[in-house]
Amino acid sequence: AAMRSRAEVDATLRTAKLNSAELLPAVHCLSFGPQAGGGECCLLQLEPGLCAELEAGRSLVIRGEKDEQAVLCSKDKTYDMKIADTSNMLLFIPGCKTPEELNSDPASCNIFHSQIAGFSNNYWELRRCRPKLKKLRKLLMEDPYEGPGSQKDQTLTFSKYTTEDLLSLIQASEEEILHQLQVIDACKIEGYWRILEFDYEMKLLNHVTQLIDSESWPLSKVPLRACLEELGSLEPREMIEHILLSYGRKYIDDAGEVYFEMREDKICRATAQMLLQNAVKFNLSEFEEVWQQSVPEGMKTRLDQLKGLALVDKSSRPETIFLLKVEDLPEDNQERFNSLFGIREKWTEVDITPYIQDLCAEKQTVGALLTKYARSSMLNGVKVYNSRRPIS
Question: Name one GO cellular component term (predicted).
């Protein structure tokens, strides 16, 4: 392409009836370079926080297996990726000067000849989303850890996952994955992340609570060293410590000794799960009695400890309670509601909240979710919610 002169540029401006006094003096003359093909480049629109991540030398990672919708992860956040089409063609011009850069240079009355290196009609748009963590528990539950003597663990066939494996399989940022591993009480055994098989976990917890009872320790001050010495012959010491970390809060006293304050709500909840998991439904008043007798002395059971674990059926006579774990429900919003309305036709907000709370996006309320996915009505003076669509 022939280089344009200033006179040609001014003539073009006159033809276009543009007043050069209203324009910046610098002129960009664009031409397509030899390699200016579309499709080689992808554009990604980033919010300032993510830009700062890249500028600081950190990386962003795209995660997802072939059958999954791609997500982009920073160190601690997850974003959905969607293609946004533009009506204007976007041109890539290396070394292109922006109006701000030109303005600061009073001598920029010259002509810039720039070559277009590529173009695009769309770009990737990011939307902050909930990390897709359900799969994490599912993978680890393929082979729950049943203890050091278990036959299954002697074989080499069980599914093993390191932190690296989980980072490549789970659509969530590293910090979100590590936090979730803590939430589900996973532990690292020989470098692999494992979840304890529930009966084995209860066996370990039982050892600890029986020891607390026999030693008459206060539940708020359980000594780590004594637990390891007393129980180390029964189970691996790291398992004893893991169960204390899962069911207690660790602290160090003035003398540097490590103690645990046992978490009443979590121990009561696990005990309830143990009682409920073998029954389809349980008479509520009988359950409450057995439950209170089954927890360590000094602990008080309350139904609100069972949010997202068990549901009371007030419509049956007598009232019953049954196991319904939020982690067993679908991760997708619509599927979650379909599943809940399949279990029970009408829900009060109090009952349904523990089963949809985890679906709330940033700054979203349970009320907003209910408005979108459910229809409200009054039943005997109480507001209840049912499905917006017929449940098959």
Answer: chromosome, centromeric region
Contacts of 112 (CB under 8 A, 6+ apart): 26, 27, 28, 29, 97
* R_g of the chain computed on alpha carbons: 31
Between these two residues, 184 and 24, which has the higher pLDDT value? 184
Is the pLDDT at 154 greater than 70? The verdict is no
* Helix (H) / strand (E) containing 189: strand 187-189
Separation of alpha carbons 323 and 347, rounded Å: 16
CA terminus-to-terminus distance, the chain: 66
CA distance 295 to 293: 6
Residue that the structure tokens 């031409």 belong to = 31
Max CA pair span of the chain: 99
- pLDDT tens for residues 34-83? 776 655 778 899 999 899 989 999 999 999 989 988 999 999 999 999 99
How, if at all, do strands 374-379 and 320-323 pair?
unpaired
- CA–CA separation, 41 vs 119, rounded Å? 8
Q: How far apart are CA 254 and CA 377, in angstroms?
A: 57
Instruction: Show Cβ contacts of residue 93 under 8 Å, excluding neighbours closer than 6 positions.
Output: 28, 30, 114, 115, 116, 117
Q: Residue 360: count other Cβ atoms within 10 Å of its Cβ.
A: 16
Backbone angles phi, psi at 315, to 5 degrees: -85, -20
Question: CB-based contacts of 202: which residues, under 8 Å, 6+ apart?
Answer: 270, 274
* Amino acid letter, residue 228: L
- Measuring CA to CA, which residue among 358, 354, 383 is closest to residue 371? 383
- Position 22 scores a pLDDT of 83
Q: Please say whether the beta carbons of 274 and 202 come within 8 A.
A: yes
